């Protein structure tokens, strides 16, 4: 009914209602647009370090994933995204990766260290300076755990350490000391496994002079205590028997060619006679020459069928081979000029340099057939499905890179060689969830290279930066680590030469 006093009131109310409705629609539309725009601009992913536009080395497939953004948070790879994706990324530190290659940190799976000042102040940092973020110690001592713990607590700059026991061996008068444990009988063999397990070592390290009975007692007790056995296969034990017993890693390829020899029994007995001749008062040279004969004596003829059966067994069982070609190549081919390169020699301590790198070492020429066989057979082992780990048996960092080069010279592809120092160690250690590849969720142990190592394995040395436990070491910082290490090595060398009256 129309209001007689205010005849236009209804018209005004209707107009007002329409105005309010229009404004409400506008507000709702604006809110909707805001929500849409907000959805299109997600919150940025935040981290501590961002590597932009980098080529990621896919070591598993042997290829390159181009133009990736790699975001690190703490000591973990938080995310990896294509460079052309829209999600914003933020980090405190940004590293330009354009034209560079990012690969996992390397592992050296056969090293010998000590917990002394030389190791702490020189060799541990040198591993990082050369992109090695993990090592496997092959003759640890109780005091080495302090060094390992200091690295884990980031009190020392150094790689992750897997700790092997002191050498468990038979009677020897060479290379003796606290790091060398002599096992006289089966009771002592079982007891030493108990001790090694209780002290916290990751594995038992066996050596060449162990008797067969003592070795098998060690293997049995190790299975009972769930601790693995690695190292040299003793001369009295065939590689077939050792692998069947559960021997986890075969170092230096020792025993493989002997176990595949046409006249295996004759050769093995000849070497065993040398071991039996060693007495507590024997000169050290007697033990040393016997050891070298076991390690390097050429096998006149390898039976191809036996070799194939042996390599098939290695592939079938959880056994890994650590060739350590580089140290064998130095001993056998001291004339190889790469070992006289300043960058190679600069980071090797005086003891290794004087014993391994003398040009008058030509008497070792008799060892050439052995390293030649091992290099040639490595490709056959790989093609048969054998599992290989890279190890240098030397300090300084560069020898591991030369080890990878020698694997390629043996016939492996650069990708296959690279896997022996990245993914393969992760698989052997049961740590593929945390290391071995460049993937989100894994530890931020990485190496940034100037050149592609899949094109040329020597490019593993074109290091632009290393990331260890989430901490970046740029080229200047890596050079500083090297310089400090060289100063320590020079001081130690001067002391040794002064003591020797040189």
UniProtKB/TrEMBL annotation:
<dbReference type="InterPro" id="IPR051781">
    <property type="entry name" value="Metallo-dep_Hydrolase"/>
</dbReference>
<protein>
    <recommendedName>
        <fullName>Amidohydrolase-related domain-containing protein</fullName>
    </recommendedName>
</protein>
<feature type="domain" description="Amidohydrolase-related">
    <location>
        <begin position="378"/>
        <end position="471"/>
    </location>
</feature>
<dbReference type="InterPro" id="IPR011059">
    <property type="entry name" value="Metal-dep_hydrolase_composite"/>
</dbReference>
<dbReference type="InterPro" id="IPR006680">
    <property type="entry name" value="Amidohydro-rel"/>
</dbReference>
<dbReference type="InterPro" id="IPR032466">
    <property type="entry name" value="Metal_Hydrolase"/>
</dbReference>
<dbReference type="GO" id="GO:0016810">
    <property type="term" value="F:hydrolase activity, acting on carbon-nitrogen (but not peptide) bonds"/>
</dbReference>
<dbReference type="Pfam" id="PF01979">
    <property type="entry name" value="Amidohydro_1"/>
</dbReference>
